[in-house]
Amino acid sequence: MTPPAGAADPFQTDGMPTDRELNPHLKLTQRGEAPATPNPGYARITETPTPHVVIPRHRLFANSSQRQLAAALMEPDIYVILIPYGGGRSFNARVPNFGESVRTLLDTFLFGTQTEPEDMDIVKILPASEQEPRVGESLSFQQPWGWLLRCGRDLRRWLLWMERISAGINKTFSIYPLNYFEDSWKIATLSADIITPNTSHARALEILGNVKKTCWANTQFKKYVVDMSRKNKSNLSPQEALVQATSSWELVPADHKDHLGKLTRVYILTGRPLSTDDKERQTWVALINSVDTVWVGVHKIDMKTYQNRISCTWCKSDLHCAHACPVAKVEDWYGPDPASAEPEPAVGGRRVDEEALQEDSEAQEAIWGTVSRGKKRNSRGDNSRGRGGGRVGRGRTRG
Ligand SMILES: [Zn+2]
């Protein structure tokens, strides 16, 4: 197990994981200096910061009208995107007046000497087409989830700083900019017989070491890291580049809940992307997910089964499932409560979609009521693929 003298050791843990202060998944809303805040109005909103949720551009805009987005992206400093908490088909059907109720709420936020609300525009993002959903897409949860908002400068700044407004069951949403898109640090999702709620920290580090070891030994992985290192004009040796590329890696526990309510503990591998380019980052993630099988002694680590199954239909995070959404756990939360909408275990009948998404949409329906499933027959019941992120809105994400 001991590496030869001078060689890098994938099991070395001193000073790791690095860059935690940059890890977007560990951040809360309301970061940095507060901008001008509106005068106290009559709206009761959540004041406590809640977890910051990363929604990469390709996920945010999957299945959105490109024509409409292009028009908004022409004015990225004027528009912001609102993502309703639990947004999706069930939500849209149940809360058709979301735009109006949000507008009424926002009208109460006045700044300084302002006495009248500023001119405002709020419009639903339209789907790319009315065609049947892509394979693996949950109907209730299907994108687009968001709305575009154009409003005054002070309100825009304050909303972006707040990041999430919770003012009632139908008035809870997060706010995302159009002039900056964040990358998720999620890389892979690991499951195995040795990954349980009782797995020790030492065992988790052993698993992580073996993941690194397997990646380091992979020719394509090594080539990608060395190429990126050269591109960034670094003077690191190939071995140092491998250590640096994976020094931020850590395993984050999450629980997947199946259609019978059975929980499976998984570890989500997170790490700092080597590039800010969406396409390059996705190449990196794909590479890691296609390296040779990771083994820990006699135990095989599965990196395929759960990769696209950990995803929250409430806040849209891809690091937890709906039943475990941490966003709604603050004391002064006024939005829907995922915990009070736990789905009943399946009794008889066959579920087409066994993924967590199905569970989540049922949990949402417990709050928002049943939505017509008329199009359900279109579902091909094939959930072997993910939600196909990455087809839309790739390319440069900044500037
Ligand atoms: Zn969530």
UniProtKB/TrEMBL annotation:
Segments of this protein annotated with the region Disordered: 1-22, 336-399
Domain of life: Eukaryota
Name of the protein: Uncharacterized protein
Organism, as annotated: Schizophyllum amplum
